[in-house]
Write the structure tokens for this entry.
Amino acid sequence: MDAITIKESIDLGAVIGLSLLSVVLLMLSAMASGSEVAFFSLTRSDIEELESRNDSAARRVLELLANSDRLLATILVTNNMINICLVIIATQLVDALLEFSGIWEFIFNTVIITFLLLLFGEIMPKVFSQTRPVKMARLLSAPLKFLRWLVYPLAFILIRTSSRVSRFAVKNAEISIEELADAVDLAETGSEEEQKMLAGIVSFGQTEVVDIMHSRVDITGIEYSAGYDEVRRVIVDTGYSRIPVYGDDLDDVRGVLYVKDLLPYIGQSDQFEWQKLLRKPYFVPEHMMIDDLLKKFQKQKTHIAIVVDEYGATQGLVSLEDILEEVVGEITDESDEEEDKLYEKIGERTYIFDAKIHIGEFIRAIGYDEDAFSDVEGHAETLAGLMMELKRDLPRRGDELSSHGVKFFIATMDGRRVDKIKVEIDG
């Protein structure tokens, strides 16, 4: 007995109808599969091309992409519904034409129909759409817009369900910064510099502007009323390429002077109105995260920002270089001087620190845990501030303070400001 035989009595009308319906469903399946690849393979240049065309098809494509979650849900719901119907219709067509014995019916319906569906309904249209994404997206935008309206209830349920599952999955897959930092500590890298860079990347999104800025007392600025000769002198003495310009004081920053803007006027007299060349200052809050500031710098196309507190008072200055140094370490060029270092190791457990060094950088330099002085630092942000918190009074030259196995000696003062601090780590 043959495993597969043609039926003696065939309903020709039913076979033709089922055959036509199967072909139509297969074409619709191919359309749905191809549209998924076409829309989600569009590159930024493809989208810019569509925006420049501004015809009805291009506008439809951009409208569909504006809500990509709903578009994907529409395609998936449509494709799966069509494939289910296609399998049912194809099975009925096979039953109307052929008779099987034993397990052959299951093998035929499973293997042959699935193979044809995958080949003509999935693989071929996706390969074709991959090579012509813009053309296919434009071609399929009209039927997809209709389908988006038609299957909206099912697509809405799918979006809501998937979003809940996604939030649950993300919540359970979260890795704390501490765990990531531990992983970096355990990782074996080629050098100490690579290890520091990895640590900088881990802490990048957790660092605030106030942690890396140059404090107010270290800002070199130019008075708005200064003559051109004074401006040139400040530029030569400091070597800075961008200098804040203020009115009455640093709380009244009126602009930023870019030295390159002065180059065409370098030979002008002292009466030259250099103030006309000022660029608008960019202000940022002191507690902004530096990863957000980096995005702002990229968007604003600027390299420097004035850091202000909640009252609008100037607290410091931060540059693009300061942000990059958090990842790659200290960046020096020909204008940087050796004495600009914030600390120097003079013995196995002895250091000389610049009092303006940030507490976080100080702690990293001596190899302590980042929260080692959290119980005594209060609102201090610099090592000088930590000295004030420990003494509960203004530090003076010669003061000796101790905390957490560290001895601090106020080595030099600059007026009433602490300048250098000698630090000894207890053995």
